Amino acid sequence: MVIVDTSAWIEYLKGGIPDVVAKVDSCLDQDVVGIGDLVYSEVMQGIRSPRAQTRVSSLLLSLPQFEMVGFAIAGESAANYRLLRSKGVTVRKTIDVLIGTFCAQNGFQIVHSDSDFDLMAPHIGLDIV
């Protein structure tokens, strides 16, 4: 299973960075993409047009859905944050540590356009597409 991070969905939806768009397209074509509740919330927060909201929500909710945060992931995410800090890695957003931890704990790959995931990947076992 592959989780497409918010940063990659933004690129995909606006036809942005070609490499990121191609990765998302490839994963969608292979029917291996799932959507996490945190990613869904972040993506939907940024869509202003009601018409676009309907279209994007339909796309995202057609994918396998995952609840990303419960107490187990929250605890593991906090441990990962402390580990990263001890290695000199500062992740800018807690939500990225939560998403990264969820993917690493569940053996999911991630497509992203956010350098924080590259920084945390070797330390928490995160597999990047």
Task: Reconstruct the topology from this structure.
Layout: E1 2-4, H1 6-14, H2 18-29, E2 33-36, H3 37-45, H4 50-61, E3 65-66, H5 71-86, H6 94-106, E4 109-111, H7 115-124, E5 127-128
Parallel strand pairs: 1-2, 1-4, 2-3, 4-5
Helix pairs in contact: 1-2, 5-6, 6-7
Characteristic terms for this protein:
five-stranded parallel sheet; Rossmann fold; 7 helices; 129 residues
How would you briefly describe this protein structure?
The chain is 63% helix and 11% strand. The chain has 129 residues and is α/β, with parallel strands linked by helices.
Structure description:
- The chain has 129 residues and is α/β, with parallel strands linked by helices.
- The protein has a single domain (2-128), classed as 3-Layer(aba) Sandwich (Rossmann fold).
- The chain contains 7 helices and 5 strands, in the order βααβααβααβαβ.
- A 5-stranded parallel β-sheet has the order 3-2-1-4-5, with helices on both faces.
- The mean pLDDT is 97.
